Amino acid sequence: MTKCKLEYVWLDGYQPTQTLRSKTKIEDDFSGNIEDAKMWSFDGSSTEQATGGKSDLLLKPVKVIPDPGRIGTGFLVMCEVLNSDGTPHKTNGRSTIADDDGDFWFGFEQEYTLWDPETQKPLGFPEQGYPAPQGPYYCSVGGGRAVGRDIVEEHLEICLQAGLNVEGINAEVMLGQWEFQIFAKGARDAGDQIWLARYLLDRTAEKHGLEINYHCKPVKGDWNGSGMHANFSNSLLRTCGSQEIYEAVCQAFEPRIKEHIDVYGADNDQRLTGLHETQSIDKFSYGVSDRGASIRIPIFTVEHGWKGWLEDRRPASNADPYMVASAIIATVKSAKLPVTA
């Protein structure tokens, strides 16, 4: 008989930015299959999700992956939060996604900052003042330019061992800032994988005495903020071969600026300023290969006969990928397409 450690992971009710919670359940000879992961419960009054007089909330397993970082046999169990009657809790963003057939594919580019809790600055920043201006840090190599690579590599390896579909990593524009990319066919699965990768990143940093700062503007001034660019497509965008259809989809986003910004992360006004490869938070634009636009049309899409995907560059690094995907799907479905579509 093998004692298996199942780490149940969920999102709490803290606002404006939810954080991860988890607790361990021991099971005998767990198969690793989602259908064998049991419902569980927790005290919602301790996570800003319930009152003390009615505190029990349910954890519904939605994805199970191996947990390579755990001694012995371990699994991570991503969960949705349900009310005691089995209905989705109001903090359950995953339940709002209208993608039952998995037609929407998402690739999220998760930026983050390795954070020194002693200096309260990005890893690599001097205790007093600032490092040299940004420019040499993006995709860099070498001491003084790429800091924390050992932590980033450890996180990457753990994610791959866990079966998460990480497609790449790179050092970002600000010193101490990094990025990983995850792609999945199906919006819910993409969100599950980002949250599980964040969990593993937080745990890796914890092991090294560091923190992960997901704030979208961790250092004020002339420093790039952190985003979570959302690359997305559905069968129409992957096959249409029509510039007209792509423009119709992009145009559907313009009247919905508020609906998107409301779920694209807290304090995003500090990041979406029109500078540092962003469009202003109250404006909307799209363009081919334009990193200063709200939505970038990748050159790949154009060169492949208008068959591919789009990139919404507005989501912040602290945004909930479930809510980001939910808003994008709703807008794409609302597009007024030309009759030829």
Keywords:
2 domains, Ubiquitin-like (UB roll), Creatine Kinase, Chain A, domain 2, nine-stranded mixed sheet, 26% strand, 341 residues, globular, 7 helices, 14 strands, alpha+beta, five-stranded mixed sheet
Task: Give a summary of the structure in a few sentences.
The protein is α+β, with helices and mostly antiparallel strands. It is built from seven helices and 14 strands. Its main location: cytoplasm.
Main sheet record: 9 strands, mixed
Q: What is the count of distinct domains?
A: 2
Helix tally equals 7
Name of the CATH architecture of the largest domain: 2-Layer Sandwich
In N-to-C order, the SSE pattern is EEEEEEEHEEHEEHHHEEHEH
Helical/strand content category: alpha+beta
- Which percent bin holds the helix content? 10-25%
CATH superfamily of the largest domain: Glutamine synthetase/guanido kinase, catalytic domain
Say what the CATH topology of the largest domain is: Creatine Kinase, Chain A, domain 2
Low-confidence stretches: none
Rg from Cα: 20 Å
Written account of the structure:
The protein has two domains: 3-96, Ubiquitin-like (UB roll), CATH 3.10.20; 105-334, Creatine Kinase, Chain A, domain 2. The protein is built from seven helices and 14 strands. It has helices at 149-161, 187-207, 235-239, 243-253, 257-261, 299-303, 321-334; strands at residues 3-11, 20-28, 40-43, 56-66, 73-82, 105-116, 121-122, 166-171, 177-185, 211-213, 228-233, 286-288, 295-297, 310-312. Helix 1 packs across helix 2 and helix 2 (187-207) runs antiparallel to helix 7. The model has no long low-confidence stretch (mean pLDDT 97).
